[in-house]
Amino acid sequence: xxxxxxxxxxxxxxxxxxxxxxxxxxxxxxxxxxxxxxxxxxxxxxxxxxxxxxxxxxxxxxxxxxxxxxxxxxxxxxxxxxxxxxxxxxxxxxxxxxxxxxxxxxxxxxxxxxxxxxxx
Length: 120
What we know:
Elements: H1 7-17, E1 26-28, H2 30-36, E2 41-43, H3 54-63, H4 67-72, E3 74-77, H5 81-93, E4 97-100, H6 107-115
Parallel strand pairs: 3-4
Antiparallel strand pairs: 1-2
Helix pairs in contact: 1-3, 3-5, 5-6
């Protein structure tokens, strides 16, 4: 198994998730650009579905599952944004999601994960 990501991989992922995620804005960060010595553009993924960029990867992965894999459902371990994103995307695609969370996770994250459709 190769972990090298090619331009073709990125283009295929972009094609798969097109129309499913929000196109979030970008802006030039003058402060970061000055500190880093190179023009730096920041993407506002807090405006994304589920509040983070993680929904992009979840869609990409879950859309690539076979029908048999979708029928079995998915399991993830997370106490934060990934839990919420997996729950939301799974729910939208009709896939059962079981989310294992740490005992000390914030109650808000448990509630948001359940509201998004995950089983905690």
